[in-house]
Design a protein that fits this description.
The protein starts with a helix and ends in a 7-residue tail after the last helix. The strands form five sheets. Strands 1, 2, 3, 4, 13, 14, 15, 16 and 17 form a nine-stranded mixed sheet that branches. A two-stranded antiparallel ribbon has the order 5-10. Strands 6-7 form a two-stranded antiparallel sheet. Helix content is about 25%, strand content about 15%. A hairpin with a 4-residue loop joins strand 16 and strand 17 (about 405-410). The protein has eleven helices and 17 strands. The chain is an alpha+beta fold. Helix 3 (about 105-115) runs parallel beside helix 7. Keywords: Hydrolase, Signal. Pfam families: Beta-lactamase. It comes from Caulobacter sp. 73W. This is Serine hydrolase domain-containing protein. InterPro entries: Beta-lactam-related, Beta-lactam/transpept-like, Diverse_Enzym_Activities.
Amino acid sequence: MNRRVVMLRALAGMFGLGGGRALAARSPGGLSFGRPEDVGFDPARLGRLDDAMRRTVTNNQIAGGVTLLARRGKIVQLRAYGQRDINLGDPMTSDAIFRIRSETKPITALAMMMLYEQGLWGLDDPVTYFIPEFTDLKVFKTADANGAITAVEPVTRPPTMRELMTHTAGFAYGLAGDSPPDRAYLEAGVLTADSLSDMVRRIAEQPMFCQPGKMWRYSIATDIQGHIIERLSGMSLPDFFKTKIFDPLGMVDTGFYVAPEKRRRLATLYDIDYSTNRLAEPPTPRWRDVLQPPLAPSAGGGLVSTARDYARFCQMILNAGELDGVRIVRPTSIAIMGSNHLPPSFSVTSDGIRPFPFGPGLGFGLNMAVSVDPLLGNAPVGKGTVSWGGSAGTWFWADPTNDLFFVGMIQRLGGVGSGLDAETRNLVYQALVDRAK
C-alpha cells in the first residue's frame, strides 16, 4: 500500500458531501421494549401492519417472516409470521436466521469507516493505492450480436474510493449475464473465486462496465471493499467483522455462515414456481451456501443475521455510532455514511433487491441509499433516511428525523415481491401520529 495515504488521512475530516441531511446524534443507548403509544404510534393503526404481513402469508406470497419496529430506542413491535419451513411445518420465530445478502453492504461501509478513522484511506484516494492489480483496467466498448465483447478501451483514470462505495466506479457484477461485461464476470467465475485475492485477480482480467464516474451501476464494488479491509487490517474479513462489529454490538447470530447448533433456526429460502404459482425451494449455487464457512466471504452479500441483530446495527446508526455505551465509530463517520455522494444527474437503479429506476429525491451514501428529498420522491420517510435490502427478501430503513427504524425479513428469491417493502413503510408512517417536531 502507498504509505503516504496514511499521512494524508490526517486531513480526513475535509470531505466533500452532496445533498441530504446527515444522520444526527441522539442520546446513546441500547434497545428495550416499549408501548407504541408511548413513542408516538397509534396502536390500532399499527395493527394494519400485522394484517398486511398475515395476508401476505395467507396469499402464499411468502412462507413466513419477521418484522421489527423501534422508535426512540424502544421496540414497539416484534412479530413472527407464518412458517420457517413449510415442509417441516416449523413455525417462524422471532429469532429465525435469514440470508440478508445485500444488507451486508451497509455493515461493510461501517467496517470501512473504522479503517477511515485510522487514517488508512480517504474518499478521493485512487483504488489502485490499495489494489495495484487494478492499475491497467480495461473498459467494455463494443460487442457482437451474440453479446461477445469485441473491443475494449483503457480506463481513463483509476476509480476513487468514493466511487467504489457509491457504485459509480464502473465495475460490473456478474450476478447474471444481462450485459456483456456482466456475462464476462459470470463466465470468469468472479463470484465463485477461491479467495478474495483470487476474486480481485479475476476482476482485473475482465473489462469494466463503463469508465469511472460516468453513472450509477450496481456492481461488485462492495466485495472489492472486503478485500481492501483484509489488506488494510491484516485480518480475515470474517474475523474483522466479528471482533470489531458483531461482538461489540452484541450481534450474536450474525456471520458468514450458520453454525451447526443454529441451523434449525435458519429460515428456508423459497422461490416462486410460476407453473403452479406456489413457493418452491430453489437450487443453491456453491457460492450461496450458508452452512459452511465461505472460501471468499462476500462483503457485498454474504451475511446471515436475525431481525434483533440487525436492529442493533440500526440503533447504532441512529445513535451516531454508539450502542450500550460502546462507541463503534465517531458521529462524523456516520454522517459521511448517511450523506448523499452522487452528482444530481445520477439515478439510483436498484435497492439491493431488484433493478428498477428510482424517482427523484433518492441519493446514495456509502453502500446504502439515502433520502435527499422525501417530498420530491413521494416518500413518507424523514429527510436523511438510509435504507437498503437483500435479494433473498430482507429490507430496512433508519430514519434519523423521526428517530425510528424498521427491519423486515422474509426468504424469497427476487426480494420482497410486489411492493411489500413500500407497503410496510407506508403502514408504519400512517401509524406515526407524533412525528418529529
